[in-house]
């Protein structure tokens, strides 16, 4: 599926995506992670890349940040602008050149977006370009090691483990959570090596336990969060 097609899915899914986000346990866990990391961040320049309906753009603005949200789906941006008229939202395709000058931001924040993009090479290079030297990149994705696995129930009937296959293989899979959206699986090394090649140095990787320990084992993370500092292009020895 190409970028235009995957963005059409997000156009159609926008309203339902917002409804699910506002009522689900997994999005509450995601929000708690973000708030824990960034509360009180202050007047830094932030790009909320793939901002959706603007929930985190607005939250960062409340923390005192100078934040811009961008997304490739007009319907998402319409929801964002309607609910958060004081925030800035731009239409931008994250698989292409971003409409911002070099070094425009101190932080690129990209929550639950990268696994929804068919290609991320240009995305990573653009994140590096729009960040100042020493700036930070923070992203979260659904955990690539477990997300596509099938749950296996234990003797008590609860979901206890996951059966994984095809982890090392690039995969495209369309799901139906808020209308159709397409997930692009890549192994963790693809993400980490790509950002390393683009001049980022990893500062923290977190794998928080599952959001619903009654339903799923708390030993398997649903999300993966990674934080980097922009240090410049690395030299290979
Ligand atoms: C799972 S949602 C995450 C939204 C938001 N970051 C949040 O946490 O609520 C993925 C977002 O990525 C956006 N997106 C998907 N493909 C894109 C692309 N090629 N360029 C820009 N945004 C894209 C979608 O429109 C959607 O808003």
Descriptive notes:
Helix 1 packs parallel to helix 4. A seven-stranded mixed sheet has the order 3-2-1-4-5-11-10, sandwiched between helices. The chain is built from six helices and eleven strands. It binds S-adenosylmethionine. S-adenosylmethionine binds next to helix 1 and helix 3.
Summarize the structure.
The protein is α/β, with parallel strands linked by helices.
Strand % is: 25-35%
Characterize the overall form. Answer: globular
Residue stretches low in confidence (pLDDT < 50, at least 5 long) are none
Helix content: 25-40%
Number of helices: 6
Catalogue the ligands: S-adenosylmethionine
Q: Could you name the key traits of this structure?
A:
alpha/beta; two-stranded antiparallel ribbon; 6 helices; binds S-adenosylmethionine
